[in-house]
Amino acid sequence: MIFDVLTLFPAMFSGPMTESILKRAQQAGLMTLRLHNIRDWATDRHRTADDAPYGGGAGMVMKAVPTAAAIRAVLALEPEAPPAPVILLSPDGTPFTQALAHELALQPRLILLCGHYEGLDERVRETLVTQEMSIGDYVLTGGELAAMVLIDAVARLRPGVIDAESISEESHSDGLLEYPHYTRPALWEDHPVPPVLLSGHHGAVARWRRKERLRRTLARRPDLLPRAYATGQLSRDDLNFLAELGWVP
Ligand code: ADE
């Protein structure tokens, strides 16, 4: 999978994109990250990529001409393929979720445009941006950190990047939070590991884990349960257990 990132600050990507799992994924050819500096498409002597807003007001606006030229040049990098989605990272976008990460992971290529300053000239948004995504209801200094969050969440879902089993029961995979994890020693200070995990009984372990996922979701994110119910993720046993805990659909 190819991630083409359009940014005014490509250096921000070293570190998060060059360590650990994403580093290995790139070395293994499972993902390619291409960073493009929008300033390279500015034609004036000072390579200006931003300007004051028409109508006045605070802050600067990313200019249409270099930004559009950058997007078009990057779209043209894969002339044989259908045009890749152009996703603007902005606090006004669709909230990014695990379900969206799964959808995006099906794409062969994503073009991510990192917004900066007060925003982007609206005409670029209207003509070249195909989707807008927000990573949460708060405002970052720019779209770079959001783009890295999106890349991380999407890339780990691609086959081979991480163990497929880790994905199937993790938080948000099927609308529930994850069960708690333990490793050696079996007794740490005065805290023992739940005995069922030492029993060697796979069925009992699986049932305990399922209940812990339900218990934890109800305690921490009860807002997730109606959706899990509506999408058929909850079995009869799940519903009976939730009813014991006081939750009914
Ligand atoms: N740029 C600034 N804030 C953002 C957010 N919350 N999500 C995505 N991009 C952003």
How would you characterize this protein structure?
Keywords: Cytoplasm, Methyltransferase, S-adenosyl-L-methionine, Transferase, tRNA processing. It catalyses: guanosine(37) in tRNA + S-adenosyl-L-methionine = N(1)-methylguanosine(37) in tRNA + S-adenosyl-L-homocysteine + H(+). It is an enzyme of class 2 (transferase). With 249 residues, this protein is α/β, with parallel strands linked by helices. It has helices at residues 20-27, 64-75, 98-104, 122-127, 144-155, 164-168, 202-220, 225-230, 236-244, and strands spanning 2-7, 32-37, 50-51, 61-62, 86-95, 109-114, 119-120, 131-134, 187-188, 191-192. It contains nine helices and ten strands. It folds into two domains: 2-164, SPOUT methyltransferase, trefoil knot domain (Alpha/beta knot, 3-Layer(aba) Sandwich); 174-244, Trp Operon Repressor, Chain A (Orthogonal Bundle), CATH 1.10.1270.20. The site of adenine has 13 residues, from strand 5.
List the helices and strands and how they pair.
Elements (H helix, E strand, L loop, with lengths): L1 E6 L12 H8 L4 E6 L12 E2 L9 E2 L1 H12 L10 E10 L2 H7 L4 E6 L4 E2 L1 H6 L3 E4 L9 H12 L8 H5 L18 E2 L2 E2 L9 H19 L4 H6 L5 H9 L5
Parallel strand pairs: 1-2, 1-6, 4-7, 5-6, 5-8
Antiparallel strand pairs: 3-4, 9-10
The chain binds adenine.
Give me a quick take on this structure.
The protein is of the alpha/beta class and 249 residues long. Helices cover 34% and strands 17% of the residues. It has 2 domains: 163 residues, SPOUT methyltransferase, trefoil knot domain (Alpha/beta knot, 3-Layer(aba) Sandwich), CATH 3.40.1280; 71 residues, Trp Operon Repressor, Chain A (Orthogonal Bundle).
